[in-house]
Amino acid sequence: MIYLKLYYTFLKIGAFSFGGGYAMLPLIEKEIVLNNNWIDPNSFIDIIATSQMTPGPIAINSATFVGYKIGGVLGSIVSTIGVVTVPVILILIISKFVSRFKNSKIVESIFTGLRPALIGLILASAYSVGTRAIFDIYSLLIALFIFIIVNRIKVHPILAIAISGVLGLIIYR
Q: Is 70 buried (19+), middle (13-18) or exposed (0-12) by CB count in 10 A?
């Protein structure tokens, strides 16, 4: 049954993805593009772009989008519930014990060790998406331009997305 498969797939994504949306992208891509062939690599990039323009985490947006594409409204509900099941349970458990272990050297060491892994996951995702999203000199120039205006000029990311959309309309029309 497709709904069970959607739930299980997004349950795995929610259970084994740590560090937020960008760190989750390699696992999301593996599950929905490579393992299940629910969407193609270009559609995956479109999900990421759409997730940046809509409120909410990337994992939830992708679960909702893919679930809807595969199983309609019920598919989007099932997928979204799947991706949040484990994190909600973990947060409920952790919140019960957080005050007891907040000064623990062991917990602090674990989180310190997780930080470099999260950077590695984010870089792997950037490489994976970048190799498909940057397909000509113009896309490379748009990417560099957006990188500069967001990091140097401190343009708001929403404005940067709008600017890149306008540039895409002008260049690729």
A: buried
Average pLDDT taken over every residue of the chain: 87
**Model's pTM, two decimal places?**
0.66
Q: What's the distance, Cα to Cα, between the start and end of the chain in Å?
A: 42
Tell me what the mean pLDDT of segment 127-141 comes to.
85
CB 59 within 8 A of CB 13: yes
Phi, psi of 103 (to 5 degrees): -105, 15
CB neighbours (10 Å) of residue 134?
Answer: 15
The number of angstroms, rounded, from the C-alpha of 162 to the middle of its chain's C-alpha atoms is: 20
> Closest Cα to residue 36, out of 10, 16, 61?
10
Confidence grade of residue 20 (pLDDT, cut at 50, 70, 90): low
* pLDDT level of residue 90 (50, 70, 90 thresholds): confident
| Confidence class for position 48, pLDDT limits 50, 70, 90 | confident
Between the CA of residue 75 and those of 8, 27, 117, what are the distances in Å?
12, 19, 32
Q: Which amino acid is at 76?
A: S
CA 49 to chain centre: 10
Phi, psi of 102 (to 5 degrees): -65, -25
Do residues 147 and 129 make contact, with C-beta atoms less than 8 angstroms apart?
A: no
The first and second tokens of residue 15, run together, are 């259970």
